[in-house]
Amino acid sequence: MMLKALIFDLDGVITDTAHLHFLAWKSVAAELGIAIDERMNHALKGISRMASLERILQFGGKATTFSETQKIVIATRKNERYVALLSSLGPDAILPGIAPLLAELKKRGIKAGLASASLNAPRILASLNLLDAFDFCADASRITHPKPHPEIFLAACTGLGVVPEECIGVEDAQAGIDAINVCGMLSIGIGASLNNAGLLLSSTEELTWARIAGLLDYTDKATAVNR
Ligand code: B16
Ligand code: MG
Question: In the UniProt entry, which residues are flagged as the active site (predicted)?
Answer without folding.
Answer: 9, 11
